[in-house]
């Protein structure tokens, strides 16, 4: 993940391109909602942080999304939004918006009748981050700690070699099958 203040931002065709000079200001969650290409960014300490994803990481994310989404839908357990869904659920930092690569929120936490525009203000039950080879471990550890402090019950960090080795993940929070 790269902070925008450190590098230029490449926009999709037809969208404006802006440089580090243009993004060195502090942003709000509301700004993120209206930013062209904002679905590709998180908001960390008021700074835009790009969510970059290469081919292998994208493929693993897609596999997780399909498997988890199919299971949750078949069991009618809740919601599994795409990675563009922003969560503004951090009590110690109300201006922070994280966008896990995939997530699950039970009907108990987020009833179907509740329509949501903008960022979700309820912590998901599960946040999934598919790491890339260039993701600093310290940043991943920080994300996991933030999710758990916000009330996320379980966080999966799936390493970049998962595509090659089959899905495996590091789990944080929750309990194992023995109840520990």
Summary tags:
alpha+beta; 5-stranded mixed sheet; disordered C terminus; 8 strands; 4 helices; globular; tt1808, chain A; 180 residues
The residue-averaged pLDDT reads 81
Helicity, in percent?
Answer: 25-40%
CATH architecture term of the largest domain:
Alpha-Beta Complex
Please mark out the parts with pLDDT under 50 across 5 or more consecutive residues, or reply none: 1-8, 15-23, 175-180
Cα-to-Cα separation, first versus last residue: 33 Å
Structural class: alpha+beta
Question: What fraction of the residues are assigned to beta strands by DSSP?
Answer: 15-25%
CATH topology of the largest domain: tt1808, chain A
Number of strands: 8
Based on Cα principal axes, name the global outline. globular
Count structural domains.
2
CATH superfamily of the largest domain: tt1808, chain A
Main β sheet profile: 5 strands, mixed
Based on CA atoms alone, the radius of gyration comes out at 16 Å
Instruction: Note the total helix count.
Output: 4
Main β-sheet, spatial strand arrangement: 4-5-6-7-8
- Give the H and E element order: EHEEHEEEHEHE
């Amino acid at each position: 993940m790269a902070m925008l203040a450190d590098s230029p931002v490449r926009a999709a065709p037809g969208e404006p391109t802006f440089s580090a000079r243009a993004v060195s200001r502090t942003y709000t969650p509301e700004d993120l909602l209206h930013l062209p290409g904002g679905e590709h960014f998180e908001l960390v300490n008021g700074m835009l942080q790009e969510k970059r994803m290469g081919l292998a990481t994208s493929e693993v994310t897609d596999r997780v999304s399909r498997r988890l989404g199919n299971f949750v839908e078949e069991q009618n357990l809740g919601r599994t939004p795409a990675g563009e869904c922003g969560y503004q659920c951090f009590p110690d930092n109300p201006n922070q918006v994280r966008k896990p690569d995939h997530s699950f929120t039970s009907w108990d936490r987020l009833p179907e009748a509740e329509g949501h525009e903008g960022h979700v203000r309820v912590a998901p039950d599960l946040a999934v981050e598919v790491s890339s080879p260039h993701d600093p471990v310290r940043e991943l550890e920080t994300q996991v700690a933030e999710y758990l402090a916000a009330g996320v019950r379980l966080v999966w960090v799936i390493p970049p070699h998962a595509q090659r080795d089959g899905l495996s993940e590091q789990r944080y929070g929750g309990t194992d099958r023995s109840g520990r």
